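Before relying on records like the one below, remember that each one covers exactly one chain. Contacts with other chains, cofactors or solvent are not represented anywhere in the record.
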Amino acid sequence: SNFTVYWGKFPQYTLKFEYMGIHRLPRDLETGRLYAAANILTQETNVHLSVPVFRYVNVAISLKKKNFVIQGISDLQEKSISTFQNAKDIFGPEFTNMAETNHEYREYPQLNTMADVVITGRKDVFLGAPYIFLHHLQQNYAGKFSAADFAFYRIFPEVVNPMGFKDPALRDEFNQAVEQIKANGTYDAIYEKYQQLLGFTE
């Protein structure tokens, strides 16, 4: 997911959340507009990065009734694709080549739009985090579609991305808190809770 967090000190502060395109996050941190941002998809930035914290696996998702066989990136070539901004620069050279030669490939700045075009059948395949897709499905298509209507293809490895911070001291406090919740089991429990709620298990 790509949401931005405004806060003053960590951790006893009220948070203000704002959704925006992934490519803006490092830039807005560098200019001081933001205090923190999640999640940063590149190490090539001047902002202060936390320990890896956002664990997810990107998947390909399509309507089951389309009966696709998707075992790798090469199987995406003849399909219309919906994914997030800068995806073609993240998944490696084979994916980049597919994206640049597939005329039905499109990157969207809005995550809801990414999901909508696949849920409604306008695009064949959603590429991204399944939690984003399934949350949108539950919130906006309850009674019309469920997770059982879609096929999930695991063609990418697991990813664990950091947060970015304007202030290195704030980053250090965040890192300490992450270590604590990993040690006491809270970190894994959060993932398990939402996997169960959304009907997806990694």
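Residues 168-183 form the longest helix (16 residues).
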